[in-house]
């Protein structure tokens, strides 16, 4: 069966969650009762949707809601200790992190709902969260203008954290106003991080050196960024309705009409751009806007390929999901989908409000092997497997949902392997065609000369 690629969009107004087939434009179920903050919508391990919610009143603590693929109604409600805005999960959907209005970060185990860790990360509210590509680092942005990099090994290892000079790997504080978005590239400890801020700049950071590589000033405040898979450029959505194309490696052009390092922009006279997402191959760029429209851009010719209308209210979250066999063409879930309750599998339980003090020993255990806290961030990557083992151990202690999540993880790994094989086959075919058409065909002419 052909693998579906879905565009999922949410709004800060109670307009629900829209879901469309990216390539056919067919709308699937519209999920109800959702008022999500920016960066508050995630797809958890491909199994279900989760979103934090805007507080109805200042006295309320907010909530986190779950939807299965086949039902428009909310199925699981969680009530954290405080209002959560950004929400992020690892690729396998085994754990989820949320950023609080107090500046605290919460880390839950999805299968059991247990609150594994909570720590004070920023002086003001957390605005955005992102895992790096190998899931061992968590990058956070805040209203205080700082961007911090957290090693999950250190988060779980109390002894290592006590020996370190600070609880984070890096703290970047060059932004002067609220951080609006962060993205990270490929390469583990050698990856780059790009951050956007209300100070109208995007900054490019090196994880290997912990330094600022490039500072780009834009004509407008940037609220959303998307990094091209090739990491030559990134896209920056402005409050002026333009999507700027910024260079990561190009030499600065002082005569540019748009600004230093800015190559151009995409625009259809829309209202402020609030969110951006790229397909895996980087060919399609999806933008959400305050005008309630979701636009699909072709990054090759810079034309609009498709437009989805979400609702009367603004769009503030876009997620692109590859979902094999979960949704039928009519929008109903395939009978083999993992979230169908008649097959005996349900969504995970609600997330804990507080850590269970009786079980504290389960979550303060030291994760080995020991590393020297004075070493650079690469040292933390040595123990990534130990973190995975810890999560697996916690899953074994959880409910039946844990077993299903492990199955989904294996399916995801298999899908990634197949995609990688296909990519290598395509590269081989292109190289073979080049050798035959260019090199071999050119050889007789060379001999004649």
TrEMBL record:
Q: Could you state one GO cellular component term attached to this entry?
A: rixosome complex
**Region described as Disordered:** 329-348
Query: InterPro entries under this entry?
Result: WD40/YVTN_repeat-like_dom_sf (IPR015943), WD40_PAC1 (IPR020472), WD40_repeat_dom_sf (IPR036322), WD40_rpt (IPR001680), WDR18/Ipi3/RID3 (IPR045227)
Question: What processes does the entry annotate via GO biological process terms?
Answer: DNA-templated DNA replication; rRNA processing
Tell me which UniProt keywords the record has, alphabetically. Answer: Repeat, WD repeat
Name under which the protein is recorded: Protein ROOT INITIATION DEFECTIVE 3
Keyword flag Repeat:
yes
UniProt cross-references to PROSITE patterns, sorted A to Z: WD_REPEATS_2 (PS50082), WD_REPEATS_REGION (PS50294)
Q: In residue terms, where are the WD repeats?
A: 119-152, 172-215, 266-307
Highest taxon listed in the record's lineage: Eukaryota
Q: Which SMART domains does the record cross-reference, listed alphabetically?
A: WD40
One family name in Pfam for this protein: WD40
